[in-house]
């Protein structure tokens, strides 16, 4: 579903709709597991700073929405602060043994470990659920390849919804699920606007005329890309590059990749009109087929078939498997990307801060609910993984301290813990400042 709203409104509503579920589900993991294991939560906050609105529940927890919408926290009984950086000794000094059991400091090590680990785990669960649900609702492409909704095109288009594709330009159409085979099939077709399609329609074989299967059309825009910035839109069809007519998406891709960043002049068909755009490709680091990253020139245009393929609903198990694979792929890609940034193998501009995330969320929301939910799932998996990094003040840092306690038999000394938490906070704040400078100054 795509709403026709002003772009600025997507920016206003997109970021809260993105941040709210991520923060809430993460902190809800801490809260629920802590409560299940007998640890009392004094406060549950979405946001930091001054409370804007809140209420007390029957368990004595203060639920609040605070002024600074850049995260959230659960403050358990006995915590010195919202980051659970230490124990408030004065607050627990007069408690009975049963009451101390309801604090994080007095809870068994296994209960504290489970409570801390639950936040990132709930983020992974959210990503998995969203990915699985999207696989179910989007469906899987039917075999043999069948025409669904047709996209408007400037060339001759004689196909109809429900047509089964048998051959194109004399070549048999392979299974669409065979990605390599279908790519080779499309590449072998003549790069022309009008091709002969042999189809099955209402039980009869017919030959009709249609465009190249992968024309230079815009099905989706990459947020914060050159194409988005100059005003290209889904549904546009690129007719020529620097005065040279094109018929395939690969031709626009080749022109972009060989441009070395030089601005390209595009003639673009949109709703029966021809518009002109000047588009300068940008360097982008993308995951390579054999691991690592490869640098390309990109404009941020995503193509596709000139029609939406007909789909069928996948089995529940198939959707769940897809959710697991996609969640794992995001986690794996996040680790790889961060490592390549740290080692200088790819640009640090790949690290976005709150401004970049807010801009991306608004642009994804503008392209439809499905795309926005996909982005929420991607970011939820990445946030869960980030919180597991062994940095003090993050959940992963707390888990390292608990591992130390399990091995040595006692927690780290308070002074050592304080120093480590200060260092961890410095690291987190430095990364935030750096990513914000990327958004506003270095990589706008």
How would you characterize the overall build of this protein?
- By secondary structure, the chain is an alpha+beta fold.
- Helix content is 44%, strand content 23%.
- The protein has 12 helices and 18 strands.
- The strands form 7 sheets. Strands 6-5-7-8 form a 4-stranded antiparallel sheet, with no helix packed on it.
- Helix 1 crosses helix 10, helix 4 packs antiparallel against helix 11 and helix 9 runs antiparallel to helix 10.
- The chain is elongated and about 85 Å long.
- The model has no long low-confidence stretch (mean pLDDT 87).
Largest sheet data: 4 strands, antiparallel
| Estimated radius of gyration | 26 Å
Structure classification: alpha+beta
Distance between the termini: 29 Å
What is the β-strand count? 18
| Tally of helical runs | 12
Average residue pLDDT: 87
List the defining traits of the structure above.
4-stranded antiparallel β-sheet; 444 residues; single chain; elongated; alpha+beta; 18 strands; 44% helix
Please sum up the structure shown.
This protein is α+β, with helices and mostly antiparallel strands. It has helices at 7-36, 89-92, 97-100, 109-138, 179-188, 226-230, 249-257, 316-342, 354-366, 369-387, 395-408, 414-442; strands at residues 41-56, 62-76, 140-141, 147-150, 164-168, 171-172, 195-201, 204-210, 220-221, 237-241, 244-245, 264-270, 273-279, 282-287, 293-298, 301-302, 307-309, 311-312.
């Amino acid at each position: 579903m795509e709403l026709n709203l002003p772009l600025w409104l997507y920016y206003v509503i997109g970021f809260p709709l993105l941040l709210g579920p991520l923060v809430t589900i993460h902190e809800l993991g801490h809260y629920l597991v802590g409560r299940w294991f007998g640890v009392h939560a004094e406060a549950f906050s979405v946001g930091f700073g001054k409370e804007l609105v809140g209420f007390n529940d029957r368990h004595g927890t203060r639920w609040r929405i605070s002024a600074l919408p850049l995260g959230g926290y659960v403050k358990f009984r006995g915590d010195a602060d919202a980051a659970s950086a230490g124990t408030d000794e004065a607050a627990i000094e007069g408690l009975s043994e049963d009451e101390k059991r309801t604090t994080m400091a007095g809870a068994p090590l296994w209960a504290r470990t489970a409570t801390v680990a639950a936040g990132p785990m709930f983020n992974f669960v959210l990503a998995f659920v969203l990915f699985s649900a999207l696989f179910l609702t989007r469906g899987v492409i039917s075999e043999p390849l069948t025409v669904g909704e047709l996209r408007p095109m400037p060339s001759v288009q004689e196909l109809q919804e429900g047509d089964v594709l048998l051959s194109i330009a004399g070549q048999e159409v392979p299974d669409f699920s065979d990605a390599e085979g279908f790519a080779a099939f499309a590449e072998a077709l003549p790069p022309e606007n009008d091709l002969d399609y042999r189809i099955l329609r209402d039980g009869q074989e017919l030959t009709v005329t249609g465009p190249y299967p992968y024309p230079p059309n815009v099905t989706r825009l990459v947020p914060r890309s050159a194409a988005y910035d100059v005003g290209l839109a889904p549904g546009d069809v690129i007719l020529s590059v620097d005065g040279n007519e094109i018929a395939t998406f690969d031709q626009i891709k080749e022109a972009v990749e060989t441009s070395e960043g030089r601005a390209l002049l595009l003639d673009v068909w949109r709703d029966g009109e021809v518009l002109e755009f000047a588009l300068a490709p940008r360097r982008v680091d993308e995951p390579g087929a054999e691991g690592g990253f490869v640098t390309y020139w990109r404009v941020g245009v995503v193509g596709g078939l000139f029609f939406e393929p007909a789909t069928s609903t996948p089995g529940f198990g198939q959707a769940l498997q897809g959710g697991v694979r996609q969640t794992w792929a995001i986690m794996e890609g996040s680790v790889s990307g961060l490592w390549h940034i740290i080692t200088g193998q790819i640009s640090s501009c790949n690290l976005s801060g709150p401004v970049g995330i807010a801009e991306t969320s608004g642009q994804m929301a503008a392209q439809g609910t499905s795309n926005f939910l996909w982005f929420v799932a991607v970011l939820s998996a990445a946030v869960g993984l980030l919180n597991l990094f062994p940095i003090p003040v993050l959940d992963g840092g707390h888990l390292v301290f608990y591992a130390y306690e399990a091995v040595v038999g006692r927690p780290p000394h308070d002074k050592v813990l304080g120093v480590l938490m200060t260092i961890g906070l410095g690291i987190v704040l430095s990364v935030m400042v750096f990513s914000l400078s990327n958004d506003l100054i270095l990589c706008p």
